[in-house]
Amino acid sequence: MSFTPPVNAIGFLLRHGTDLGAISETGRFEEPSDDLVGAILTGASEFARDVWAPTNWEGDQNPAKLEGDDVIASPGFKEAYQAFVEGGWQTVSLPQDIGGMGLPSVVSVAVNEMLYASNMALGLCPMLTSSAVQAIKAHASPELQETYLPKMLAGEWTGAMCLTEPQAGSDLGPVRTKAMDNGDGTYAITGQKIYITWGDHDCADNVIHLVLARLPDSPEGSRGISLFLCPKMHVNDDGSLGERNDFKPIGLEHKLGIHGSPTCVMEFNGATGYLVGEVNRGLACMFTMMNEARLFVGVQGVAIGERAYQAALQYANDRVQGVPPGQEPGAPIVEHPDVRRMLIDMKAKLMGARMLGFATAEAADLHRHKREGLLTPICKSYGSDLGVSVASTAVQVHGGMGFVEETGAAQHFRDSRIAPIYEGTNGIQAIDLVGRKLKRDGGEEMRALIGELRDAVEGVRNAGDLDVCARAMEQGLETLSTATDIVLNATEVDALAVASTYLDLAAHVIGGSLFAKAVARGKQSGDAHAANMAALARYHALRVMPAADGMLEAIRAGADPVFAFPRAQLADV
Amino acid sequence: MSFTPPVNAIGFLLRHGTDLGAISETGRFEEPSDDLVGAILTGASEFARDVWAPTNWEGDQNPAKLEGDDVIASPGFKEAYQAFVEGGWQTVSLPQDIGGMGLPSVVSVAVNEMLYASNMALGLCPMLTSSAVQAIKAHASPELQETYLPKMLAGEWTGAMCLTEPQAGSDLGPVRTKAMDNGDGTYAITGQKIYITWGDHDCADNVIHLVLARLPDSPEGSRGISLFLCPKMHVNDDGSLGERNDFKPIGLEHKLGIHGSPTCVMEFNGATGYLVGEVNRGLACMFTMMNEARLFVGVQGVAIGERAYQAALQYANDRVQGVPPGQEPGAPIVEHPDVRRMLIDMKAKLMGARMLGFATAEAADLHRHKREGLLTPICKSYGSDLGVSVASTAVQVHGGMGFVEETGAAQHFRDSRIAPIYEGTNGIQAIDLVGRKLKRDGGEEMRALIGELRDAVEGVRNAGDLDVCARAMEQGLETLSTATDIVLNATEVDALAVASTYLDLAAHVIGGSLFAKAVARGKQSGDAHAANMAALARYHALRVMPAADGMLEAIRAGADPVFAFPRAQLADV
């Protein structure tokens, strides 16, 4: 169950699929020179392969445990996390003036894909820390920032997000956890939170929780929720750790996958909390870090897909069964056309999804907020759905061995299934895309993106042996344009009923077009990997992008086929 | 985690989607009158709901155990299996002259879907018995038949198939298990077999194994394999049970799903075996029952999908989150357009897959062997793949609760994943369809089927409010016809590289067309459920069948995009 990240492919898409020059010109980042990027990717790849990947299976087989009031992480996780902190990996995309490497988000996407692939469950811990850092930086008082951020930035303390309650999941309006003003600048937080990822553990000295709670006289619903910072361990004035705060994990979920990630039920018994941002503006504060978190869940999907792909490839290269056409006896199953098809299909689709992640991060780096907002739900949903389908295909390549846990293929399949659910289900993403991102500017940003990609078609056509990609782009972009008009002109219910299909269509076309564009640029620059990347781009154009056409039919149909069947009869007919 | 089979939907498709009249006219079955069929379906449904379904979760949480040389089934399974035997459910499709109910295979498909849905792991036990019975009936000597069949037919003894060895899975040619002639009409079997479903257990008094093994002077490869019957317990001349035979389970696999089904490693230490069929013709004997087994794995996919669907529906009817458009606060999430879309999508697709199962069984009942052979791989692959995707969507409907094991949604997702693998992986099915079923008659049977479905278009169009179905049939059948020509004229490698895609295309079109045809007939006969079934058929026509067009593009592309990327670089680029 070894794993080596595909550094060449990731580096290729980063160099030719994003505009590192423009990102550099913003002056906000350490200049991402080819040498520096190369060194970072190589270093991250080696760390992922040598330090984190070997802990992945152990985490699955030996989930985190609750002992008394403390969660004990899976064997080897504490050491693997400490090595991550010592290697400075938490700081990749943090500004230099606060001790970070100051690299753009596109580089962080590349690094995090490797980390998530090597150990998805452990990778959630720094991902949550990063989200908490974002929210604290944007909204907390200077004093809170001074007390908590340095340790969190270094990864010495980790972050956790306490949003969900049993009755408040996708809709946080009904949050009931209470906050009482202590009159001394602090608040007493009381209530129960569920699904708290890495809510407690022994990998770091402190866990900084951001908790949504309601003040007594606040309005009902989502406009009456405030955000509070609750440290697991109180922090003394000199920065040393004091007593434990009045909250604790009281249960761990027994989950389908990511067993190494402790998913806590947290009980707050008048815990001391510090207000972050304004009273009753808690949800808005949380949304600050939502884009980044959603981007990284899309990247997780790609990551778990890549890990599953590599496992399937290793198996297909070793396993001998039957004689593939045109081969000698003893040839491994990778030579069977249908096995090869599965592998190339996984590989090519992952490239398209990877490009969606890079494009979203690039938009963030360039402060193109509308573009970032448009691409984020597409990246999150498509990447996470693809992670599940690729992990499923990887099980299939293993045959019977895939269904037996000991090969590890099943773990990837189980782990992958969370990504379409958390950080906003993929249904929520589709609603966000259609109901908010598309409608609020009348489709302007989507049309701008379609226009940019249309402008790129000629370059793809002229790059040599990418004709099929240019044709697929033209046809796909036409389909996306038509679908966009339909959705924009639809009633609310019609638009919502086809939102997921529209998102999927957009992902196929945009991901495929960005991929082809990146390959064309790589060819023009004489990149040594361009020929092989071009073979994948052609596969994507011929066998992946055409699915968009069938989706257009579904979009045209609107809500009628979805609601024509009476609800009362759904259990039978 | 209650489960009630959708008797109305299953009954509708059975009555209007199969030709029970023609089946009756063969004279080989008890006349399947509406009353009888209705009584059987109701009885099976109640048994599935009340007796088997409550044991499903227990089997997942408490897998079968190996204690010494004996496998102890999951808690409650022995009682559930005994109730199955006492209810006579093993005998549904067995001829009356040997104590069966003498009902056609189409009825057995309906009954088995309910049983598999209620407990897939337990359902495998009678499925294996049925397969073993088929092989023994077709190939064993009268003495063997007399000794073993009556008890097996009743379900008092169960069957097991010992085919796979570590180096011999999809390709059984390399089987190494040895058979030595004892000179007294018996053979001594020695070797190790893996993945033996229900290879040992305590639910019945005896387990009758059919074992592939090689005689010392047999040719190498698949033409040197013979089939042997090895009873777990020797049977005395008076029919009573004697000593235990010299083979035993030495391990149980730790699997992703179907934990209640013991998957055994079996060790044969000179076990007494009886030759079944001719020497060196063992593989041919096994293929006798392959069609039926593959049909029933397709049905399993539908079954686990239906179970997952019902769980998702129950959750969606209960869970309140956000206010769906046009609804009051407190409306459950089933009213959210994207949730309703997921539910209707699952439900409609299951109908298409169900029709593929009924059509395959109907062909068997009518002795239309070429039709049965053509449809079997399509039914097996599409049904089993759909089971996985529907179970995945059902997890998604549950949101975070879907990823937590206690809801049971995750179990269905895990259980479902085996069906695309066993009884010939879906890749093998596609090879069988394209390389054997399609090519051996130059596409004649496929063209005949396309012709029959084209002839049905007019009836669908005239049935009222099924216009969209008629159009989808016309377009889909044209697409299938074109794809068939392409595959028939392709080189071997081209055909094999697109075989899975061709199968998927055929399943979409044939399943959708058969479904529309059944609904049209139901409408014409005034069936009370026809209006709701028509709503599902329209959904299928508008949102499922159009996917076939995108697949045609992939089929046109042939093997080139699959093999253009160099094998040596598959790990990266």
Provide a concise account of the structure shown:
The structure is a homodimer of 573-residue chains. With 573 residues, the first copy, chain A, is an alpha+beta fold. The first copy, chain A, is 56% helix and 12% strand.
Helix content of chain A: 55-70%
Principal-axis shape of chain A equals: globular
Instruction: Tell me the CATH superfamily of the largest domain in chain A.
Output: Butyryl-CoA Dehydrogenase, subunit A, domain 3
Let me know the number of strands of chain A: 11
What is the quaternary state of this protein? homodimer
Span between N and C termini of chain A? Answer: 47 Å
Describe the structure.
Two copies of one chain form a homodimer. With 573 residues, the first copy, chain A, is an alpha+beta fold. Chain A folds into four domains: 7-136, Butyryl-Coa Dehydrogenase, subunit A, domain 1; 140-148 and 158-283, Beta Barrel (Butyryl-CoA Dehydrogenase, subunit A, domain 2); 289-424, Up-down Bundle (Butyryl-CoA Dehydrogenase, subunit A, domain 3); 430-560. Chain A is built from 22 helices and eleven strands. Chain A has helices spanning 7-17, 20-25, 34-52, 56-61, 77-86, 105-118, 120-139, 142-154, 282-288, 290-318, 337-365, 369-397, 400-403, 409-416, 426-438, 444-461, 467-489, 492-497, 499-524, 530-544, 547-557, 560-563; strands spanning 65-67, 70-72, 157-162, 178-181, 187-197, 206-213, 226-231, 233-235, 241-244, 247-252, 263-276. In chain A, the strands form three sheets. In chain A, strands 3, 4, 5, 6, 7, 10 and 11 form a seven-stranded mixed β-sheet that branches. In chain A, helix 12 (369-397) runs antiparallel to helix 15 (426-438). Chain A starts with 6 loop residues before the first helix and ends in a 10-residue tail after the last helix. In chain A, 63% of the residues are buried. The interface between A and B is large, with 101 and 101 residues.
